[in-house]
């Protein structure tokens, strides 16, 4: 496996803080750290918008359960877009996917896409660890038809687990080079991050960015993380 440089790896990272107990001071620290580390973006809860930072700003929608009405997800996405979000990571209704109601999943993605049109980047969190391979493929195909820009493995909050190399590879095989694939959930080492990239991930959702980037070159700059 080819080892990515520190800068190459940083450019793939959504530096993430979605803990329910996070404060505004925590988010401000996250933004400063993202700028220092050179990550692609920060990813924060929608209640923390707007965020002043020189990197991209991502937020979540229907998080973490996905068990919200489609119109509520759409309204949340529209509000986030109006408050400066560059990217929105929406959680699908996983129960619908597990029940084989893929048309309904696709329609809720369409509703969010309509509420937050391009150039907002829409990522669709499918909770891959809770789905069969066939369900993963069907949801990814529906996300592409509905106009999503990325499919994403996980919220990181589901008891079934987070990202896996198998799921990332299957998602990449399904969407080809037409959509991005984001691996998120349980990625805590440089080796794990690089394994996800090797499997096909084009973005990484990480909360341990500083430690992972320190491992990438042995010396991440600046003070210790929050």
TrEMBL record:
The UniProt record lists the keyword Cytoplasm: yes
Coiled coil location: none
Keyword Cytoplasm belongs to the record: yes
Catalytic activity: 2-deoxy-D-ribose 5-phosphate = D-glyceraldehyde 3-phosphate + acetaldehyde
Its EC number(s): 4.1.2.4
Main location: cytoplasm
UniProt GO MF annotations: deoxyribose-phosphate aldolase activity
SUPFAM superfamilies referenced in this protein's UniProt entry, alphabetically: Aldolase (SSF51569)
A matching Pfam family: DeoC
Pathway stated in the Swiss-Prot or TrEMBL entry: Carbohydrate degradation; 2-deoxy-D-ribose 1-phosphate degradation; D-glyceraldehyde 3-phosphate and acetaldehyde from 2-deoxy-alpha-D-ribose 1-phosphate: step 2/2
Compartments, as annotated in UniProt: Cytoplasm
Any Gene Ontology biological process: deoxyribonucleotide catabolic process
Keywords of this entry: Cytoplasm, Lyase, Schiff base
Top enzyme category: lyase
PANTHER family: DEOXYRIBOSE-PHOSPHATE ALDOLASE
Family to which the UniProt record says this protein belongs: Belongs to the DeoC/FbaB aldolase family. DeoC type 1 subfamily.
Name under which the protein is recorded: Deoxyribose-phosphate aldolase
Protein species of origin: Brachybacterium phenoliresistens
